[in-house]
Each structure stands twice: as C-alpha cells, then as structure tokens.
Amino acid sequence: MLKNIFTLLTLLIAAFAQAQTDSPFITTSDSVKLFVKRAGKGMPVLFIHGGPGSNSDYFEYTGGNVFEKDVQMIYLDQHGCGKSDNDPKKDYSLKRVVKDFEEVRQALGINRWVLMPLSFGGILATEYAYQHPSVVKAMTYLNCTIDISHSAKSGISKTIELLPSLKQNEVAYLLNDSVKLMDRFFNSFWHLDQAGIRYKLFFDKKENDSLHSAITVNAAKHWDMGQNVWNFPEYFVSFSAKTASIAVPVLIIGGTRDFTIGVDHPKLMQFRTKEVKYIAGGHALYMEHNAELYDAVVPFLSNHVSKS
After folding, report:
1. Which one, of 198, 219, 205, lies nearest residue 61 by Cα?
2. I need a surface site. Which of 24, 52, 268, 274 has the fewest CB within 10 A?
3. Full domain range(s) for residue 29
C-alpha cells in the first residue's frame, strides 16, 4: 500500500515538474509574465514581432510556422503585448525589452540562438545583438526597420502617390517638417483609411490584410506596449551606426512593394557580414509569398548557423 502511494506521489511530482517546464509563461525579474511558446526542433530561433505592441500569433498562424520544419521557433509576446502581461510600472523601455530577451534565453537554457525580427522588431534585435553579441549566432531580418523616421517618410511618400485626389493643403501638411513626423505618418494612415486602401502599404491583397488583422486582434489580450512605446524616445533614432559593429551573419529580406518600411531601407543596414535578398511582394511576405521566403531563409541558416 505504502509502495503504491509512494509510486503515485512520485508520478504526481514528475507530472507537476513537467507542467512547470512546459508552462507557456516565463516571469521576468520585474515580475511580468511573458508568453513564450516553442515549436519545432533544431537550432533555437527567437521570433521578434513588431507593431510596435503587436504579438507573435500574426506571424505563426499566417505562415511563419513553416520554419518549424527546420528549426525550433520561439514565439515570444513582448512586455504588454498579446498574451503577455501588462507592466503595471509601464516600463516599456528598450532597455527593459532587451533584458526580457536575455532573461528568456537564460530561462530556456539556451547558450546561443538565432534572431528572426520582423518590422519594428528590427530595432529590438539590433539593440539586443549590440549588447549581447556572444549569444547570437545569426540574424534574419524580415522586412525590418532600423530607423522609424526613414520608414515613416516612405509611408508618407507612398500615401501621396496613392491618393492623387488629396487637396493641396493636405499634401502640404504631410510634407511639413515643422509637424512631428509620426503625427504626419498617422495622418497618412487616416487618409488611406478614408479611401479604404491602407492595405496597399503592407499587402498585395485586401483580403489578406483583413485576415491578418483578425488574427492579430484575436490574440491581442494586451496592447499596452503599443499605447505607451511612443513615450520612449530611444526607439525613434537611427540604429544604422550600431549595425556596423555587429559581426554575426545577417540575412536581410526586403519586399519590392514594402512601402511601410521603405523599399530601399536595407541600404541603411551596415552589418559586417550580410546578404540582402528581395522578394516580389509587400510587408507580409511570410503570408503572401511564403514559399519564396522559406527558400531564402533556410539555406542561409543551414550555411551559416551550422558552421558557427
């Protein structure tokens, strides 16, 4: 009888330990629970979502999970994003985000990993790799910005091109350097929304924009970072100079119709060892041109990660 009880107790303890190991949340040093999901096998690859303030679901469930065939994808919802908790202290600083990434790496017992940033995630990945170069094996920048001002100007320019019916004073406002750039950028979104064509900055097809938005919103339990990130000026500088000091291999993927980032944006990235590849498409290549993206990324990982 006692033996059976001991066996049952042992099994319960093992089950509890396994449940703790498989928990989708990691608690950071500032007591915020971050949603972390691992899928696939092989080299660990941290997906760094954009937004700012979005979540990892929009990538995973619209095609990004294709990489799970070759590597272990780590989907992380950042502080105050998606399924991760809001920060009651509202610390959405770049310093805090970088610290989160490092604490997640340590919690998962990973020595070195690959970074796969998307969009605004390029800024986060650049700063992390700049501060922690020894733990980064390689990086794949998917339609990333490292300079929000440069990207915003691209979006404004394309808005004016897409809306020839804009009044002269409306165009003048969008081009007025005395007005805050982000105010003008969001104003360009408003004009595009009025015409029902904002999707043209990001997607090839409107229905893809609708599906993408639905998945993003469905997973957006929290959007606190997206609402507060504008209070942290460190995000709104150029990270071009920092890229020049990063020595790990970097693959830069750009879309020939990615007007929200800027088609020429990869020219700002001065990584010491880099490859630049363009795919005919917009901002969401993982969704609209999945096979082409897969064929560009996987050989890079095979060639560089396996040798490092």
Report:
1. 219
2. 24
3. 2-304
